[in-house]
Amino acid sequence: MRRLALIPLLLALAAPAAASAAPASAVSTGIDQCVVAGSGTAGSVQFRSRMTAVPRSQQMWVRFDLQARLSGDSGYQNVSTRDNGWIKSNAGVDEFIWHKLFQGLSAPGDYRARVRFRWLDADGKVVDSASRRTAVCSQPDMRPNLELTSLTAESTGDAGQLRYVLGLRNTGKGDSAAFDISFSVGGAPRPLVSVSGLPAGRSQTVAFVGDRCRPGEPVRLEADPSDRIAEVDEADNVLSTTCPAPVRR
């Protein structure tokens, strides 16, 4: 069972279960708001329930059990939360609406609630019950994802140097802060190339002048070699190729 840092809202209460016979129109569920986690902030979801009185009922109870399907999970798992119990209506009401907030949701993940409803008579006995699942609040991975896509070279007029043009893109949902690109030729490191940052979903080229590589010589480039940027996937940061044939500008 997973545990998340969720803010407790209500005290837990206990009640016996009963078989469900409540009409479909007597209950409903929904999502008031689904706040997606941002940079350095956790996500949240607020569910809503509505129930109406049924014959012989004098009080209504509702309970929200949070369920999560996180990255790598094959299905939904119950999330353990503190003080997440039954919420009671006032006696004798015809309608009971409740809004339940869960905070501290991690990403990526999908969240829903199992909402349980109970109707009690004047003696406190359960006369009916029902259960529904809410819609899903999805928390996408908002980190950037840097990829190196291509390398070409241009003549500079200096026989010992080339102007290298590197293609890169950010396929993630978050903007990337400044990062470096390491560059080595034939296993020998060359000076780092600095990039000021790359917005989410954007592509760009970075040009820099360096010592000329020889035809067929192995060339390796890596985005963010010091791992300063938290990314969705670190495995696609490397571009290994051979020395590109230079073209004239």
From TrEMBL:
Span of the signal peptide: 1-21
Chain ranges of the CARDB domain: 144-240
UniProtKB keywords: Signal
Pfam families cross-referenced by the UniProt entry: CARDB
UniProt superkingdom: Bacteria
Keyword Signal among UniProt keywords: yes
Keyword Signal set for record: yes
Alphabetical GO biological process terms: carbohydrate metabolic process
The protein's name in its UniProt record: CARDB domain-containing protein
The organism of origin for this protein: Capillimicrobium parvum
